[in-house]
Amino acid sequence: MPSVGGLLDYARWRMRGRPVGSVVPGYDAFVASTAAIGPDHPNPDVAFSVVMPVHDPDPAQLSAAIGSVGSQTHERWELVLVDDGSKRDDVRAVLDTAAGHPQTMLVRNDAARGIAEATNAGVERATAPWIVFVDHDDVMAAEALAWLSTAAGGADVIYSDEDQLDPNGVRTYPFFKPAWSPRLLLGMNYINHLTAVRRTLIDGVGGLREEFSGAQDHDLLLRCAAVTDRVAHVPMVLYHWRQAEGSVAADPESKTWAVAPARTAIQEAVDRSPLRASVIDASSRLFRFRLEFEAPGGSVELITETDTAAAHARATASPADLLVFTAGTRVSPEAVNQMCGWLDDPDVRVVGPKVLDAGGALASCGWIVQHGTATPYGAGHANVPVPFLETAREVRAVDGVGLTMRRDDYLAAGGFDPSRGLREAGVALSARLAESGVAVAEPAVALNTAEAAGSFPMPIDSTDPYVSPHLSPHDGMTLR
């Protein structure tokens, strides 16, 4: 199995909060080759206000954070520092020095009001149309604002990839993100850093909410997602999240108090949507959530045939509203609910489970479809608790071993191709359905298969928006 050791290291780190080195082999070489790359066509007219709430960080780390803003190659920026009742004289001295820069302003709160209120105070003082959020001990890449400027024209929210700085200042744990994935946002704050939001949008949704402190950024993004889908991803590592003492980057257990606000924020987002579900923890680990759906409103036909023609015949003859194909496996009512529940969202066309092979490794968790080829996401990797293997998310296609859709959509898309085996025919059908909507991989449901799956041709020339261009198209999980 490729990269099993790396994935297990990642799982141990997430569960114990003890970094054990870079997860992605070759990341040091990636850093060296991309560290100073800037965009070909930055937009010099875009202005950014970088808002940085400050409350007694390490002074050297605060200086590095402030310096990373001052080192931006993009010239139209201002830095709004909000001293949220810092007590340390050395911290206050760093802020006083920084305030002498002509592009920096300092707001001081006499007492700590919390990160949400401190951020709101910074947004209130900001003068640029774009607000960029930076923590007081993290570091922006020098080209960060230049890259964000390239996406500002047609977006309301922009986000980038990120990595972490270990205690020795070494960049590690990169997170290469997918394109805009609002269903993934219901399971985790995958956007996180670096994020820029139009000032008018922040004002329109009411700013950050104090009662969600600790998850205030996730809550804000969920409320933004309710009113706009103009969200752009810049697939460059533009933010370095420091593994500072007491931070989630260093120890996921350090903010257990923030789990409940995050869960509540997601539940409110679900309640605003057509979905009928409760938000629960995805596992014993923090800040990963999943939806537990109610029984579907329409009738359901469970189709277990393994032959493509027989499955197609059952589907076309069925009077049911929803079709659940499981290729020879009987599934529980809870699994049916979990698959069918996503179809309350009218944009979701097809849902598929996580599929495991005979040895318990991944056979697929969604499929990558790009440049004329379909490939199972994660095939051969260990089934360990990493984010995309435990939270539902958008994918380009799902596995024919198990897929769920509306019968009307099945018929409108032409059903299965009888010349293909059921697994391949299901992938092809789900890819067609996703062209007019969304395919969702739901890893809370797992099916098994004894069938080996490789890549196969697919007449789609575009790239897959849900797989980073920095990751291998052969598994979606390792660097190219």
Commentary on this structure:
The chain is of the alpha/beta class. The chain folds into 2 domains: 18-269, Spore Coat Polysaccharide Biosynthesis Protein SpsA, Chain A, CATH 3.90.550.10; 300-457, Spore Coat Polysaccharide Biosynthesis Protein SpsA, Chain A (Alpha-Beta Complex). 27% of the residues lie in helices and 24% in strands. It contains 13 helices and 21 strands. The chain has helices spanning 4-16, 27-34, 59-70, 89-98, 115-125, 144-150, 199-205, 216-225, 259-272, 308-317, 333-341, 407-412, 422-434, and strands spanning 48-54, 77-84, 104-109, 130-133, 139-140, 157-165, 171-175, 195-198, 231-242, 277-281, 289-293, 300-303, 322-325, 348-356, 362-364, 367-370, 373-376, 393-395, 403-406, 438-448, 456-457. The strands form 4 sheets. Strands 1, 2, 3, 4, 5, 6, 7, 8 and 9 form a 9-stranded mixed β-sheet that branches. Strands 12, 13, 14, 15, 18, 19 and 20 form a 7-stranded mixed β-sheet that branches. Helix 3 (59-70) runs parallel beside helix 4 and helix 8 packs parallel to helix 9. It is elongated, with a radius of gyration of 23 Å. The model is unreliable at 1-5 and 10-22 (pLDDT under 50).
The CATH topology of the largest domain comes to Spore Coat Polysaccharide Biosynthesis Protein SpsA, Chain A
CATH superfamily of the largest domain: Spore Coat Polysaccharide Biosynthesis Protein SpsA, Chain A
Summarize the amount of helix as a percent range: 25-40%
Number of helices: 13
CATH class descriptor of the largest domain: Alpha Beta
What percentage of the residues does DSSP assign to strands (E)? 15-25%
Alpha carbon gyration radius: 23 Å
CATH second-level architecture of the largest domain:
Alpha-Beta Complex
When the domains are counted, the total is 2
Structural class: alpha/beta
